[in-house]
Design a protein that fits this description.
Length: about 90
C-alpha cells in the first residue's frame, strides 16, 4: 500500500450489494489511513434497499464528513467507481 503525502489522510471507500437487482440490500464502508498508512478510522453499515452507485456515494459522503470531523484538510480519495468521484453518476 502506497503511503499518502505527509500530513494527509487517504480514504478508501466501497459499496456492496447482496443481489444484483434494483432495490437490493446494500451496504457501504470506508477506511481512513494517515500518511504512514496507519488506520485512523473505519466504518461500515447496512444501508437498505438501493443500487450500488448510491451505496458508493453514501460511503464517500460518510468518509469525507468523518475526515472533516477529525480535522483533516488534506484528503486523498481512492475508489473503484470513478464515475462517483468525478460526478458523472446521475441518480435514478
Amino acid at each position: 500500500m502506497e503511503s499518502s503525502p505527509l500530513g494527509s489522510i487517504k480514504i478508501n471507500f466501497d459499496g456492496s450489494v447482496l443481489q444484483q437487482s434494483f432495490n437490493a440490500t446494500t451496504a457501504s464502508g470506508f477506511i481512513l489511513r494517515d500518511d504512514s498508512s496507519y488506520h485512523v478510522l473505519a466504518s461500515a453499515h447496512k444501508i437498505g434497499k438501493t443500487i450500488v452507485p448510491i451505496a458508493e456515494v453514501i460511503a464517500l459522503r460518510d468518509s469525507l464528513l468523518n475526515a472533516l470531523k477529525l480535522g483533516f484538510q488534506n484528503v486523498l480519495v481512492e475508489s473503484d467507481i470513478i464515475n462517483c468521484v468525478i460526478g458523472k453518476f446521475k441518480c435514478p
